[in-house]
Amino acid sequence: MSAWLEWTDTDARSWIAVPGPHDDKYSRGVLGVITGSVEYPGAAILGVEAAHRTGVGMVRYVGPRFVRSLVLARRPEVVTQPGRVQAWLVGSGMDAARRSFVLVGELTRAISSGEPVVVDAAALDLVAAHTGPTIITPHYRELASLLAKREIDVSAADIAADPSGWAVRAAIELDVVVLLKGASTFVADPVGQAIVVRAGTNELATAGTGDVLGGILGSLLATHASELRTDISLLAPLAATAALLHGRAAERASGGGPIAALDVAEALPAAIATLTGRA
Ligand SMILES: NC(=O)C1=CN([C@@H]2O[C@H](COP(=O)(O)OP(=O)(O)OC[C@H]3O[C@@H](n4cnc5c(N)ncnc54)[C@H](O)[C@@H]3O)[C@@H](O)[C@H]2O)[C@@H](O)CC1
Ligand SMILES: Nc1ncnc2c1ncn2[C@@H]1O[C@H](COP(=O)(O)OP(=O)(O)O)[C@@H](O)[C@H]1O
């Protein structure tokens, strides 16, 4: 039985990298992104927007060609040339049933690159290829189908009834950090770290907010890539920090009213300024 640490603003503060005078775009970290598809291009835009607004040296978007032009139309600062990256975000906004052979190869190469990686949505079934620091970001249905592929008979309803227990079980079973999404977010790693994040608003129950979370987390991994190389235990607090930041940005965007996912991404800079005491 894990003892769950409730993550606070004070905990999260020190996990957000603030650039200094000696930083440049490469020293801050480059996030490689393979997300979006003809079916779900918006997920790529949401993740890229959130990554930029969390603070990162560069976003290198190398997802499907059709999506690149849409991402560039929204964010001209995105680089679409392949090249070195310090972390990856893969899988949001894709349909596993429609992945091409080439795309599966690209996703697998990123997951097995040894760099820190966030594996979301339609790349979850490829997670066994991981070789470096890896976080998966399923919701209940996604975790249920991922575990079913490993012959663990569990439904989304079972996971909803015991999300903390299933987060721990999945982290051990898959040997990765699990960030299990829901009204509360449970982060578990294979060696017993267990963190719950309750920041946010129920208004987050709207399409695309998970894609925004992926971008936030990718950004935090890219900006901590050198520390992660020597200490994989940093993944869980970074994941919890991403969820807390996501929640605080959502509260700010909502102000008590409804939100759309892009509003959450746009509220990130102000949420970070407050959290890091620079507001
Ligand atoms: N703007 C975008 O491009 C967005 C893209 N998204 C992407 O969409 C893909 C699928 O994500 P999901 O979380 O939906 O995947 P899930 O596989 O969890 O959900 C799909 C299932 O939801 C159920 N469902 C569909 N419509 C329903 C309805 N009207 N009422 C009740 N149940 C219904 C069906 O059983 C369906 O098989 C992911 O790749 C995700 O990243 C989502 O994040 C939403 C926003
Ligand atoms: N009722 C809720 N209250 C608070 N947060 C929620 C609620 N429902 C979902 N969330 C959060 O919203 C996000 C939804 O992500 P996800 O299910 O992947 O949606 P999408 O695939 O549409 O992006 C997650 O961060 C999750 O923790």
UniProtKB/TrEMBL annotation:
InterPro entries in the cross-refs: CARKD, Ribokinase-like
- Amino-acid positions noted as binding (6S)-NADPHX in the UniProt annotation, renumbered to this chain: A43, G93, H139, D211
Record key words, sorted: ATP-binding, Kinase, Lyase, NAD, NADP, Nucleotide-binding, Transferase
For biological process, the GO terms are: metabolite repair; nicotinamide nucleotide metabolic process
Q: Which Pfam families does this UniProt record tie to the protein? A: Carb_kinase (PF01256)
Q: Which residues cross the membrane?
A: none
Q: One GO MF term, please?
A: ATP binding
* Highest taxon listed in the record's lineage: Bacteria
Q: EC top class, in one word?
A: lyase
Identify the Gene3D superfamilies for this entry: 3.40.1190.20
Q: How does it assemble?
A: Homotetramer.
- HAMAP family hit by this protein: NADHX_dehydratase
Report the protein name in the record. Answer: ADP-dependent (S)-NAD(P)H-hydrate dehydratase
Q: What is the lineage of its organism?
A: Bacteria, Bacillati, Actinomycetota, Actinomycetes, Micrococcales
Q: Which gene encodes it?
A: nnrD
